[in-house]
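Ligand-bound model needed. guanosine-5'-diphosphate.
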Amino acid sequence: MADKKAFPLEKVRNFGIMAHIDGGKTTTSERILYYSGKNYKIGEVHDGAATMDFMVQEQERGITIQSAATCVQWGAYRLSLIDTPGHVDFTAEVERSLRVLDGAVALYCAVGGVQPQSEQVWRQSEKYKVPKIAFVNKMDRIGANFYSVMDQMKNQLGANPVPVVLPIGAGETFDGIIDLIKMKAIRYDMKSLGKNMTEEEIPADMVEKAKEYRQKMVESAAEQDDALMEKFFAGEELTVDEIKGALRKGCMARTITPAFCGSAFKDKGVQQLLDGVCDYLPSPIDAGAAVSADDPSQKREPSDNEPFCGLAFKIMSDKAMGKITFVRVYSGTLKLGGELLDSTINQEQRISRLFRMHANKQEALEEAHAGDIVACVGLTQTRTGDTLCDPEHPITLESIDFPAPVISVAVKPQSRQDNEKLGAALHALAMEDPTFVVTFDQETSETIIAGMGELYLEVIVDRLKREFNVACDVGAPQVAYRETITTSVENEYKHVKQSGGRGQYAHVCLKLEPQEPGKGFEFVNEIKGGVIPTEYIPAVEKGVRKALESGPLAGFPVVDVKATVYFGSYHEVDSNEFAFVTCAMQCFKQGFLKAKPQLLEPMMDVEVAVPETYMGAANGSINQRRGRVEGMEDRAGVKLIKATVPLGEMFGYSNAIRTVTQGRGTFTMIFKQYEAVPKNIAQEVIEKRIKEGKVRASAD
Ligand code: GDP
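Prediction:
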């Protein structure tokens, strides 16, 4: 039952499929499970029977939200397929899976091509330096065009796709693929759902094209290696191993993207894609050592001989087992029951059960090895992004980079019982996902949940109901504004209270300075000669940090400010921690209002796709919403308008764009950056907040 011996690491592939919604990722994943023999019955997505999509909402919405890791065997290889979501609202899910996979398949629809959201995911994967191969799916659809997707990859992604197969036919005539390495046509036996294949001669009308593309492929391979380049120019044939080896090298250096095609739905091309995963994507050895976040000289090589270290990248709650934590093991051996340290929170943890997950069953393990992706039970405190390691050899890996939430809603439990369960349920959900933030608004007694998008919050509310049995009423979505300052000020504040016996005394001088956007908050202590005793400095910082939570302007979080405490005084008897916390908080608030404060709003990258006749209407709809049109492109027969628009103006846009384009227009949006809100609008927002009791008219 348990794996005593490590699987040869060079034969392990940890990979994910990155795709736009509806590109066919779920169908392709299903076929992978089918061909690799773990899953005998193919469940079609539209039946809602897909094995990877555990969660009910996903099946209903037809989108994949969760990142499950599924293990399959392909020839001599062990593949772990890490599920990545297609919807950009779930950026955190994408980021976390990209962080732990070694390579990825970029999947595109042969008709839709490279869509706006695929660009976003591509960029994210480049950030993590993830090598990729491409799969152009849905070759059976009318209008399918492999070559045009290759061009889009070049033009829109700046990629260098190198076809290693070509489609035979397209749309209804799509009938197999040409393997450019073997120079054979591959056809599929439909009775075995494409499992059985035959190799045939290339059809006469495709011989020229196949030669042309093979030449291009060989040239790209030769470019990766000087010795091969010489051989190539000398007119010698490169061997299969040489071509594959060089393409693999290029793929891992991310100078080329080997490209495949097929139709998952019609059972063609997926097996060649799987061979491609083995041939071109990196093994954990190629992916290299895991590096400490604090000290880059501290490393853990991908080997069982190193001390254990791993990253918790996904937490799920399971009815039977409770909290399941998915861990990518980078080095050493993770043992059932053995002691381990969560070095991010500095707490010892213990694993009570350990599994390798297959799509529909769990394989119990006693230990996991370098390169493994496993599910653990018993890690009660561990959060997503935490490092787990050998307590004798601590190391903390870089945590996963999560964006701040841009949108929030108030949730109100429907009954007392719901109210009692709400806290625990939200806590569990927040453990799973660091981009999901829960706050309690003291002023209005409301629970506020915030995340990366409207759809995301809908899913959370849905899960509250289904998984935790908590029914909630949900308020209108609110924009997550921020507050900051635009000039530097120095401010002095004295907190003095004399009430009968012992009084309170604190005196703080703060310098507040604006920081570059995105730099966050910084606290600096420049107190000299102990005018504020060292023991009270943490209280000053605490007071300032408290003030950041609810900005003086409109009660929104304060960002990008540097606060330096440079002077003050204390009283032998009356000074205490509380007095300094209160004083620093007031000092900050007062200073903040003097430093030309500004409200910031999330700006979204919006792409609107419309037929040409509706261009005017679509442009108008952007301008009306305080949007800036940044550019215009032709794409797949429609006009694509690229614009930057405040999130606050985008609520209800899907209806609006449908109305002005008679149902023909569609749009996507993703968070871009925070920008200053125009004065008149800021004033409206502030007044509304004052009316709602979320901020006092002016801080004293
Ligand atoms: P996902 O959102 O990327 O997971 O995509 P799905 O696998 O759910 O597929 C979306 C839709 O496209 C479903 O209706 C599938 O049946 C269909 N689909 C998937 N692959 C193909 C394909 O190769 N050809 C055609 N014609 N349809 C496909």
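The pocket of guanosine-5'-diphosphate is lined by residues 19, 21-27, 45-46, 62-64, 86, 137-138, 140-141, 263-266 (CB under 6 Å).
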